[in-house]
């Protein structure tokens, strides 16, 4: 009060107004700063269940943007359905097309899960990747708990291929015919049922068999720990070259791309191009980026850039048909079960809220080839 009196009537009013203005400006600055830290990216604010621009952008770029899908939530959870069909152009069966689920008893086939997925894909104008034909995991007991003669096992593989690939013939864009043929960290072929019984030729044999049943499908070898080069990648390269020289119907290599945050290879494009130079497609087939716990906002933002980098890599590689993420949302991810202490690997969180990983993919797809962001985002 004393100060106001000394300054006089109108001066006091100006001083008060000035103080008020400074307070308002200060509050606005604080609010903007808080918003920058707390408010999600623009794409995260979009309703994730609507036909979002992610799917539209992928379509516009002629790129398959896929998601691995599980049967139960697809049947029971409308939000899960909306995330799948609203954001992606393609689906992979996460588990339901694997041996133990398709043929739990010899000659006893269960196609309820695969049918549900393929029908959903058709209804929503999505393409399908088939997963998987020969693998060491998720095989039924009747197949693993006894010895087989080579000819017998060839017959079993033939029957399974005719039943599964035959049922969806013409409806599958691609099949992971050979899954993880090399040891986890090594260049040696994996000691699995197929190798032990049929020898190395099981790979060519499975590809020929698949090609005879579904001649239109692109046939893949799908592998992990090859995305950054190294001895395992070299062994895969040798295998692919050899198969192609022999005229075996191999059309693509799947880089699974189960990455750890901070370790996405810088030379992903070069590694992919090594294989596309052979005349093969290279797809990113099982992308996720797991983060060691506790997970903070900064890591989630950086993960968004890693998703952007991977989609950008696919766009740069002429023969990369697409990128598939391995799960619709974090609570459906395989990561916490298989890598305890890591989490948050996917573009949608456990409440189906989109994360910067989704924005990162939008960002990559929005950039003009060789240029900056498109103006029509
Ligand atoms: O089927 C049983 C069910 O009967 C049981 O009630 C339930 C209880 O937990 O488990 C069910 O089995 C689970 C199975 O998925 C089917 O849902 C297993 O516990 C679970 O370990 C299994 O994990 C799958 C894993 O392959 C098996 O190796 C993951 O969901 C799936 O994402 C993962 O996918 C693989 C790709 O096929 C190949 N590349 C690696 C990728 C990640 O491992």
The protein's oligomeric status is single chain
Biggest sheet statistics: 8 strands, parallel, barrel
What's the pLDDT, averaged over the residues? 90
Q: How many β-strands, per DSSP?
A: 10
Q: List the total number of helices.
A: 17
Provide the structure class. alpha/beta
Low-confidence stretches: 1-9, 36-51
Question: Cα-atom Rg, whole angstroms?
Answer: 26 Å
Main-sheet strand order equals: 1-2-3-4-5-6-8-9
**Mass-distribution shape:** elongated
Total tally of structural domains: 2
Helix-strand pattern: HHHHEHHEHHEHHEHHEHEEHEHEHEH
Transmembrane segments: 20-41
Keywords: Carbohydrate metabolism, Glycosidase, Hydrolase, Membrane, Polysaccharide degradation, Signal, Transmembrane, Transmembrane helix, Xylan degradation
Pfam families: Glyco_hydro_10
EC number: 3.2.1.8
Q: Could you characterize the architecture of this molecule?
A:
- It is an enzyme of class 3 (hydrolase).
- Belongs to the glycosyl hydrolase 10 (cellulase F) family.
- One of its GO terms (molecular function) is endo-1,4-beta-xylanase activity.
- The protein is α/β, with parallel strands linked by helices and 377 residues long.
- The chain folds into two domains: 1-39; 49-366, Alpha-Beta Barrel (TIM Barrel).
- It contains 17 helices and ten strands.
- An eight-stranded parallel β-barrel has the order 1-2-3-4-5-6-8-9, surrounded by five helices.
- α10 (150-167) packs parallel to α12 (202-213) and α15 packs parallel to α17 (356-366).
- Bound molecules: ligand G3I.
- Ligand G3I binds at residues 94-95, 137-138, 179, 256, 286, 334, 337.
């Amino acid at each position: 009060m004393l100060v106001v009196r000394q300054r006089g009537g109108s001066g006091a009013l100006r001083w008060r107004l000035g103080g008020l203005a400074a307070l308002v400006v200060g509050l606005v600055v604080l609010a903007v700063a808080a918003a920058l830290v707390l408010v999600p990216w623009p794409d995260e604010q979009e309703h994730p269940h609507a036909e979002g621009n992610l799917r539209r952008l992928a379509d516009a770029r002629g790129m398959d943007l896929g998601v691995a899908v599980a049967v139960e939530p697809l049947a029971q959870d409308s939000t899960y359905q909306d995330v799948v069909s609203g954001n992606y152009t393609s689906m992979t069966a996460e588990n339901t097309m694997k041996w133990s689920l398709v043929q739990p008893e010899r000659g006893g086939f269960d196609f309820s899960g695969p049918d549900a997925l393929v029908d959903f894909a058709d209804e929503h104008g999505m393409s399908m990747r088939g997963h998987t034909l020969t693998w060491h995991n998720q095989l039924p007991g009747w197949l693993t708990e006894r010895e087989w003669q080579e000819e017998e096992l060839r017959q079993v593989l033939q029957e399974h291929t005719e039943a599964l690939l035959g049922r969806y013939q013409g409806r599958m864009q691609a099949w992971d015919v050979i899954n993880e043929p090399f040891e986890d960290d090594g260049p040696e072929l994996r000691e699995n049922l197929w190798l032990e019984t049929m020898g190395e030729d099981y790979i060519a044999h499975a590809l020929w068999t698949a090609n005879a049943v579904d001649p239109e499908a692109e046939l893949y070898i799908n592998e992990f720990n090859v995305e950054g080069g190294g001895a395992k990648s070299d062994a895969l390269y040798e295998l692919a070259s050899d198969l192609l020289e022999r005229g075996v119907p191999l059309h693509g290599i799947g880089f699974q791309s189960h990455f750890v945050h901070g370790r996405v290879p810088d030379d992903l494009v070069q590694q992919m191009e090594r294989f596309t130079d052979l005349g093969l497609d290279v797809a990113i087939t099982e992308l996720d980026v797991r983060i060691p716990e506790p997970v903070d906002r900064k890591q989630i933002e950086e993960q968004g850039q890693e998703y952007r980098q991977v989609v950008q890599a696919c766009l740069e590689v002429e023969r990369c048909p697409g990128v598939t993420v391995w799960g619709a949302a974090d609570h459906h991810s395989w990561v916490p079960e298989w890598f305890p202490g890591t989490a948050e690997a996917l573009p949608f969180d456990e409440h189906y809220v989109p994360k910067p990983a989704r924005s990162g993919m939008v960002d990559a797809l929005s950039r003009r080839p060789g240029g900056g962001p498109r103006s029509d985002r």
